[in-house]
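Q: Structure tokens for this one, please.
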Amino acid sequence: MQLQQHFKLMATYNERMNAQVYDTASKLGTAELIEDRGAFFGSIYSTLNHIVVADTMWLKRFATHPSSTATLAVMVALPMPERLNQIMFDDLDGLKVHRQWLDSVIINWIEALTDEDLSTTLSYHNSKGIASTRRYSSLIYHFFNHQTHHRGQVSTLLSQAGLDIGVTDLLALISEEA
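A: Here is the predicted structure, written as tokens:
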């Protein structure tokens, strides 16, 4: 399997898991969603919001890569979040709609990448303004891993609230081989 195909699998997994997490979170009331549960970003809502913030930051950075300027052009118009905990939407419904849109942007972007694109580098500035240049494919791995990390936190918080998001294994999307 080529690198680009791995990223297609990750984009599909990402979309599926986000849908499961948001569907489960929507069973909670606002007070339960914003309750500080001791997680790094405090609440279920704030953690979901952080994932959207970080995805926006990374997609805006990825949009500067020559291979992605067309597929991520929609990201250029969005303002760059100023903080990792900046609240993007006032309610879960607004955040969910935006999450679904981001997931479709991610899938379209990943589908357009080639293995040649992935062997290049990306120069960017992090949220503290520090410049960096890293392998493009490694940054995309980080992008998906970051989402998985924080969704895992949300899964735990939802479990503690008495809700099960269902099967979360990537294995569920990997085809059986002969």
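A few notes: Strands lie at 121-125, 131-135. The two ends are 15 Å apart (CA to CA).
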